[in-house]
Design a protein that fits this description.
With 199 residues, this protein is α+β, with helices and mostly antiparallel strands. The protein is built from five helices and nine strands.
C-alpha cells in the first residue's frame, strides 16, 4: 500500500467519523423540549396564566399533561377539565407557545400559596422516544400579598369618563338646521339681489 492509498483511507475514515458525529449532534439538536412557566397577565395583574412552549428544535408528539393535585382554576372548574389537560396535544411544533388561563390570584389566595402544584408532562419525539418532565408551580414566588389594583376597574372608570365627555360634546353641538326653499322664493331672492345692485 503506497502513501496515496494510506492518505485516502485515512481521509475516508475521518470523513466517516465526522459525518457520524454531525448526524448524532443534529439529531440531538432536533429534539423537542417542552417548557412550562407561569406569568401574570399583562392586562390584569391579578390573573395568572400558564405558558406552555416547545423550546426545543424538534416536534413534540402526543403531549399529555397531569396536575397533581388537581388545581381549581375557578369555582368548581379544574385544570384537568380544560381541553389541553383532558385531550393533550397531538403535534406540538418547535417554538410554538400556548397561553392558558390558570387562576385569579385573590380567589383562595392563602390556599394557593400554601399548596404548590406539580404538573407532569409526557411527550415523544418523532422517533417515538418518550420524555417525562415535572414542573412545580409555586405561587409564593409572586409574593405574600396579591398585587394591588385591578386594571379592569380602572378601564371601566376611564370608559365612564369618556362617555361623560362624549355626552357633554353631544349636548354642546347644535342640531343642524335645514331650510326648505321653493323655486319661486329663489327667483324672488335673486331678483331682489339684482335690483339692489342696480340701484
Amino acid at each position: 500500500m503506497d502513501i496515496y492509498q494510506t492518505l485516502s483511507l485515512l481521509f475516508l475514515c475521518v470523513t466517516a467519523i465526522a459525518t457520524t458525529m454531525y448526524a448524532i449532534l443534529s439529531w440531538k439538536l432536533a429534539q423537542p423540549l417542552v417548557s412550562l412557566m407561569t406569568e401574570l397577565d399583562p392586562f390584569d395583574n391579578l390573573t395568572m396564566n400558564l405558558i406552555i412552549e416547545n423550546v426545543g428544535s424538534g416536534t413534540a408528539e402526543d403531549v399529555k399533561f397531569e396536575a397533581v393535585p388537581d388545581f381549581e382554576i375557578s369555582h368548581n372548574r379544574y385544570l384537568s377539565q380544560t381541553g389541553l389537560f383532558k385531550n393533550g396535544i397531538a403535534y406540538f411544533p418547535p417554538h410554538q407557545k400556548i397561553k392558558l388561563y390558570l387562576t385569579w390570584m385573590p380567589s383562595d389566595y392563602q390556599k394557593k400559596i400554601e399548596n404548590p402544584i406539580t404538573i407532569n408532562v409526557k411527550y415523544k419525539n418523532n422517533l417515538k422516544k418518550a420524555y417525562t418532565q415535572k414542573f412545580i408551580i409555586d405561587f409564593t414566588l409572586f409574593g405574600e400579598m396579591p398585587p394591588p389594583g385591578n386594571p379592569i376597574s380602572k378601564v371601566a372608570e376611564s370608559l365612564e369618563k369618556i362617555e361623560k365627555k362624549c355626552n357633554y360634546l353631544h349636548d354642546d353641538l347644535n342640531p343642524i338646521r335645514v331650510m326648505i326653499v321653493t323655486k319661486e322664493e329663489i327667483k324672488k331672492e335673486i331678483e331682489e339681489i339684482i335690483t339692489e345692485k342696480s340701484d
